[in-house]
Design brief:
Number of strands: 11
Structural class: alpha/beta
Number of domains: 1
CATH superfamily: Metallo-dependent phosphatases
CATH class: Alpha Beta
Strand order of the largest sheet: 1-5-6-7-9-8
Strand content: 15-25%
Largest sheet: 6 strands, mixed
CATH architecture: 4-Layer Sandwich
Distance between the termini: 31 Å
Order of helices and strands: EEHEHEHHHEEHHEEEHEE
Number of helices: 8
Length: about 240
Amino acid sequence: MGIMKLDMKSYNKIWVISDIHGYHDVFLRIFEKIKLGEKDILIINGDSCDRGAKSLEMYETIEKLVEDGNDIIHVFGNHEDLMVKGIEDGNLFAWYRNGGRETIRSYKKDYITLEKHLKYIKEMPVAVDLGEYFIVHGGIDPEKTIEEQIPYDMTWIRNKFIDFPLLKTDKIVVYGHTPNLDGKIHFVDKQKISIDTGSYDTGVLGAIELNSMEIIYESTDSLNLYVNQAYRKKD
């Protein structure tokens, strides 16, 4: 599990989306809006599983889209980490209390498919370095250079990264993991773009294109912001 390096100049459009959390139907609608071309790429910045109802469908769809010729990279997220450790190490409590039960239900005891998806997940990069932009699920340790980062921090870090005013890199970090409960993508400061639109709280998925800064959204329905979690819509 390492950092994948790509050249931004190789692509016309570079789309990034994060924290889909099993909201497969919303993903399909936003993917239709993106309309990936021959020299375009989509980076899914972690957490396609848990909380929502269709984790199996998410990974199956990504596999099919890649087979059909779409350039799609999936970054390792903390919920992929929870899934692997829950299944392989028996750490079920942490996984289940963070949406793992919904993932298990989606597989319906299809252990062959589950094993295939686990292999795919364990081969995901922990970040994508585009030169100007650094795509990572959680963020980076602000007191370390990119070369000094460790996978755990890049996958799990939150406030230490978000609240730190100056990073030890000139890259712009595009990250998910910490949900924006207004359902919007945030330009936090000159070096941080927060793209977790809180799908399982808001019903919203957002995607950003890094060359043009175009942003698009899709949601479960027109009334997608719920303060009371008891009334949160399900995909």
